[in-house]
Amino acid sequence: MTEVVAVIPARYWSSRLPGKPLLDIGGKPMIRWVWERTCRAGAVGRVIVATDDPRVAEVVEEFGGEVVMTSPEHPSGTDRVAEVAKGLSPDLVVNVQGDEPFLDPEVVDQVVEAILKLDVPMATAAGRIDDPEQLWDPSVVKVVLDLEGHALYFSRSPIPFLRDVPEEGWLEKAKFLRHIGIYAYRREFLMTLSGLPPTPLELYEKLEQLRALEHGYKIAVAETEYQSFGVDTPEDLRRAREIVCGR
């Protein structure tokens, strides 16, 4: 049986939302929302919160979660997850974003299924774009796939480009996919990836998943109906609280 460990990187300091993992949403800190939903994924046998701050660690331990302290020097969540994985020996490691309080556990299972089905070193998820504003929003990352479901490229620009089609008609003529930032890695590959230097396209687009593609590695993409919602700004936090209150 495949052993799968999910790691949730939870950095305390955020320029737009300081103390983000501990912000209250409906009476619970955000990190607890993410942890609880990740625990519901059928494919995952163990869930670990990776943090650089004792305040986050204390809260996670209080609600019964497992936590590992990591270096405050990591430039990305992937590096934080890799530090945790170095001390473990699972078959797969899933990187779950710590700022998605309404994560659908099924997406975790879909990403794990994709990495196993396509026999690749890495997998992620994507959902269809139906809103024209998202298509042109650089904060919404787009992805295009090959015929077998592997990522060809990720970009902050709309891809593919539809030549000779008016922009207002693009969503009617083609399928556009929004990248969802959850990743599954084979453990050995995660160790390799975290040791590779940044690549040109990665630096241009500010998208670290491009590092794998530029080095020639395959990324499977699980298509899902889930519409991700990350809490990155005070406005996002307000919306998250409204969602909980409306339930």
Folded structure, characterized:
With 247 residues, this protein is of the alpha/beta class. Helices cover 34% and strands 23% of the residues. The strands form two sheets. Strands 1, 4, 5, 6, 7, 8, 9, 10 and 11 form a nine-stranded mixed beta sheet that branches. The protein has a two-stranded antiparallel ribbon with strand order 2-3. The chain is globular, with a radius of gyration of 18 Å. The model has no long low-confidence stretch (mean pLDDT 95).
Calculate the terminal CA-CA distance, rounded to whole Å.
37 Å
**How many helix segments?**
10
Using the alpha-carbon principal axes, give the shape: globular
Helix content: 25-40%
Task: Report the portion of residues in β strands.
Answer: 15-25%
Mean pLDDT reading: 95
Low-confidence stretches: none
Main β sheet profile: 9 strands, mixed
| SSE order | EEEHEHEHEHEHEEHEHHHEH
- Helices and strands: which structural class? alpha/beta
| Strand segment tally | 11
Q: How large is the radius of gyration?
A: 18 Å
Quickly describe the structure:
It is built from ten helices and eleven strands. It is of the alpha/beta class and 247 residues long.
SSE inventory with pairings:
Elements: E1 4-10, E2 24-25, E3 28-29, H1 30-39, E4 46-51, H2 54-62, E5 66-69, H3 77-86, E6 92-95, H4 105-117, E7 122-128, H5 132-136, E8 142-145, E9 151-155, H6 170-173, E10 177-186, H7 187-195, H8 200-205, H9 210-214, E11 219-224, H10 234-245
Descriptive keywords:
9-stranded mixed β-sheet, 10 helices, two-stranded antiparallel ribbon, 247 residues, globular, 34% helix
